[in-house]
Design brief:
The longest helix has 18 residues. With 501 residues, the protein is an alpha/beta fold. The protein folds into two domains: 166 residues, Ribosomal Protein S5, domain 2, CATH 3.30.230; 212 residues, Rossmann fold (3-Layer(aba) Sandwich). Helix 7 packs parallel to helix 18 and helix 20 packs parallel to helix 22.
Length: 501
């Protein structure tokens, strides 16, 4: 007898439907799983048979064969435990035929309890697109799977609940979502903790409003890391489409449930010893996302920038332009989204004190040049805002005057982003930093005085075509913060000052 159950698989962050065919035949006892199964998939036969017996279900000695179609795609993970179990029970006559419109994913324990799997959101989207209407998942995966929309989600703790539901013995309630939660910004670090540095705060506000990359260079203790760690408190909330992408990526590494519960943009801060593969992604088997993709629609903060390995830094160049990262390994090629704000912090020299009024630096000019040469010119050309962070004056530290709260800055940033979302509606662009050439020509035309200033700066500062366009994008954001439609000479001048130091 043959029974069919439907499940789903994942490759990169793309899901696909899998047909699980379970066949029972006379002959010597055996249990074979075919269809390019990985090690975890092959081990499902032990988990499934033990769980069935622990639930009091008969598993007679016979020849059992499970086929996972499409057979030419490698199947990884324990996601097929539940559909194999249900298909086997249906083939053995322990339950009736499985519904055609239902899909099952989940790992099983030896007692039949269900455990969460990776990639639930991407698989749910594939199920929805295939025309199926019901999805049964482990309870921990329900919240992220529900983000796909268009499906009736059933969240189960144990396989027995699904058997009872399918037989009509005890119907399960469809998952309806979690109650609203309080704001995650409460208790977060706040910009009001930062004394002085008003020019740097202004630059960070512009960076957040337009999604621009930023480099902070200054002596130890000047507040670079402190301010960078607070960038998340002034970023605008994610759009539904942005959140969907973020949850899909985090779901691949098993953190989809946490990402689904959060409305904050991701902020990644890898240590400077992280390898190029850790930054870009990789690993054995199907490549997994790295820090670039985990920072998608959020911030990648690189502290002590020159201390990163050269190959790890050069990995940034292509994703900063394209918003994606392609990883090629022997197991195949995977492309992950990687559109992020790059925030970097560095010291001006190896000892950290070059340019400090105290004269504490003992580095030679040659050593200073060699230290800064660790950051390549093409990478610097992709960073819109480059700020020298001066030491905080004693007056600012001793007076402790009340500073502006993150909530006040965030309100201006959100207003500027809303102007951008309206401007680029229907184009796939969400912020000024992502503008395409055609949009640059349409929306970034300065007035006459502004164009003269740009022409003069291009010759005098030796701009590249890329830096010219990035100055215009930066000026567009400054104008948006001011609520002005036309880019003026004042906006251009401020943008140039942030770009060339």
């Amino acid at each position: 007898m043959i029974a069919t159950a439907f499940s789903a698989g994942i490759y990169g962050i793309e899901g696909y439907l899998v047909t699980v065919e379970c066949g029972i035949a006379n002959g010597l006892p055996a249990f074979d799983i075919v269809g390019l199964p990985g090690a975890a998939v092959r081990e499902a036969k032990e988990r499934v048979t033990t769980a069935a017996r622990s639930m009091g279900l008969a598993v007679p000695p016979c020849r059992k064969t499970v086929n996972l179609a499409p057979a030419d795609r490698k199947k990884e993970g324990a996601v097929y435990d539940l559909p194999v179990f249900l298909g086997l029970m249906a083939a053995l006559g322990q339950t009736g035929p499985l519904p055609e419109d239902c899909v099952f994913i989940g790992e099983m324990s030896l007692s039949g309890a269900l455990r969460p799997v990776r990639g639930a959101l991407s698989m749910a989207m594939a199920v929805r697109d295939s025309g199926k209407t019901c999805l049964f998942v482990p309870e921990e995966n329900a919240e992220e799977a529900a983000l796909a929309g268009g499906l009736t989600i059933y969240a189960a703790k144990h396989a027995q609940e699904i058997l009872d539901h399918l037989s009509g013995k005890k119907r399960m309630q469809a998952y309806t979502g979690r109650p609203e939660k309080p704001s995650e910004l409460l208790g977060s670090p706040d910009f009001c903790d930062v004394m002085g540095q008003e020019n740097v705060k202004r630059a960070m506000e512009i960076a957040a409003a337009g999604g621009h990359n930023m480099l902070l260079c200054g002596t130890p203790g000047s507040g670079k890391s402190m301010m960078a760690k607070r960038i998340g408190t002034i970023l605008p909330p994610m759009t539904p489409e942005e959140k969907l992408d973020v949850v899909r990526i985090y779901s691949v590494i098993g953190e989809g449930a946490e990402a689904a519960r959060s409305d904050l943009r991701p902020i990644r801060s890898p240590h400077h010893t992280t390898s190029a593969a850790g930054i870009a992604g990789g690993g054995t088997g199907i490549p997994v996302p790295g820090e670039l993709s985990l920072a998608h629609n959020g911030v990648l903060f690189l502290d002590e920038l020159p201390e990163f390995r050269k190959d790890a830094l050069e990995v940034l160049r292509q994703p900063l332009e394209d918003g994606t990262v392609s990883i090629v390994r022997t197991a195949g090629r995977v492309t992950y989204p990687a559109k992020f704000m790059l925030i970097c912090a560095m010291n001006p020299c190896k000892c950290g004190w070059y340019g400090h009024p105290s004269g504490r630096c003992r580095c030679t000019p040659y050593e200073v040049r060699e230290y800064r040469k660790k950051i390549s010119g093409p990478l610097l050309d992709r960073i819109d805002i480059q700020m020298d962070v001066r030491p905080v004056p004693l007056r600012d530290l001793s007076e402790r005057k009340p500073a502006e709260h993150s909530a006040e800055i965030r309100a201006r940033v959100v207003a500027a982003r809303e102007r951008q979302l309206e401007r680029y509606r229907g184009t796939g662009v969400t912020c000024n930093a992502d503008m395409r050439p055609a949009q640059l020509a349409e929306f970034c035309r300065p007035d006459e005085a502004g164009q003269k200033l740009m022409d003069s700066a291009f010759e005098r500062l030796g701009m590249t075509a890329r830096s010219y366009d990035r100055v215009l994008r930066l000026a567009r954001t400054i104008a948006d913060l001011a609520g002005e439609e036309r880019i003026s000479a004042a906006h251009i001048a401020e943008a140039i000052q942030y770009r060339f130091r």
